[in-house]
Amino acid sequence: MIAPLAQRMRPRSLEDVVGQEHLLGDGKILKTILEKGTTIPSLILWGPPGTGKTTVAKLISRVAGTRFIQLSAVLSGVKDIRDAINMAKKAKDEGLHTVLFIDEIHRFNKSQQDAFLPHVEEGLITLIGATTENPSFEIIAPLLSRCKVLVFKPLSHQALEIILQRALTDRERGLGDLGISIEPQAKEFLIEHAQGDARSLLNALEVACEILLEVRPGDTGGIITQAIVEEAVQEKALRYDKSGEEHFNIISAFHKSLRGSDPDAALYWLSRMLEAGEDPHYILRRMVRFASEDIGNADPMALMIAISALQAFDFLGSPEGDLAIAQAAVYLATAPKSNAVHKAFGNAIKDAQKFGSLPVPLHLRNAPSKLMKRLGYGKGYKYPHDYKEASVYQEYLPSELRNRLYYFPTTRGHERTIKERLDKWRRLKQNKRPNLWEIHKGHLDKD
After folding, report:
1. Could you tell me the residue ranges of all domains in the chain?
2. Helix 263-275 / helix 245-259 crossing angle, nearest 10 deg
3. Cβ(150)–Cβ(135) below 8 Å
4. Is the pLDDT assigned to residue 439 strictly greater than 70?
5. Domain AAA+ ATPase: where (predicted)?
6. Could you tell me which residues come within 8 angstroms of residue 135 by beta carbon, excluding any fewer than 6 positions away?
7. Can you give the pTM of this predicted structure?
8. 273: Cβ–Cβ under 8 A, 6 or more apart, which residues?
9. What class, spelled out in words, does domain 157-233 have in CATH?
10. Per residue in 231-263, pLDDT tens?
11. pLDDT single digits (tens) 45-54
């Protein structure tokens, strides 16, 4: 039985590995360890599927000349761990060190992970665990402290393009004998669909080749078209390049639909992005920003709704979590709008940049030491809770910015209430009528 293309195309040396240059490039951690020939530390390889974790683990063992034992945490139990340790002991008697590789190590429970500790500590095995989950939450602390965590990144567009081309041209292990080529737009769609996952890319390419050969039975050659790739991955290619102009056009349309209070248009553009494979976290980041930039205090709940949608999506994943994104989008579109906080913050930043490091007024400074008190720190500060309605007139800005105003709330939504309250306070301050403010309830100089 012929092995799948993704299996056949595994790199045979570290030099053949594409991507992960931050780990395998010149002067980087893994290459340095292997070149120096030092003892390989136990490792946790953390990253998305199809980024080379298993391949790199095998190659590390090969370069180091060790016995390689592989277990899957999904399929293995305590007996399998015990058998692997016994094999490592036999290898040691033969003068061989053992690399024990655990795929999806986060699937092992606490007691199973505990079983590795003594053998890692005594140096019987070098443990290399692969995980798609955050090790901080999924790997027990004693084991994690004995391992170095290496982060694998999703493969870049360029890396996937190299892998695809190798598979099409390699005559020994790939599809080179078939003389198959691929249309540029079909290649781009295939790479986009892979989402940084080489295994997904090669699996889809192999299915596309099978479809092509079914159309041309007993023949070689031919071109993989966009239609064939769409059939192979069972997904239509929407016009949406995540790094090109259409990406920015659609996110702009989504943002403007939210700002324009059109939930129907917002849902359409949201659906376009999700169906085209946009990263939901990118959309959610834009929505969280929108909640502050375009809604602000007109509806303070908007920011909470956007954050809740992010948390719900992280908890549920796709497609279940997509509904939380849609719910939040409708809420943001139908909420009252105000950019007053956004404008106020922008103007405050301009003054901070223009005036530089203005000194904090003495009465606003804390005075934890006697020296500071002698220098006047905190002198004259009025503690608002000692006054009626917890309000008292005093200056909070540096003297150079006295009476400067930044925030002008609208009359929309909750900002109407804020505006009424703030207008009252500002009138009192402008009139400088302390007798309306200074209804003393306690000590004046309170820190």
Report:
1. 20-151, 157-233, 245-334, 356-437
2. 150
3. no
4. no
5. 39-156
6. 44, 46, 106, 144, 149
7. 0.56
8. 240, 250, 251, 254, 283
9. mainly alpha
10. 888 765 554 555 555 677 888 899 999 999 999
11. 999 899 999 9
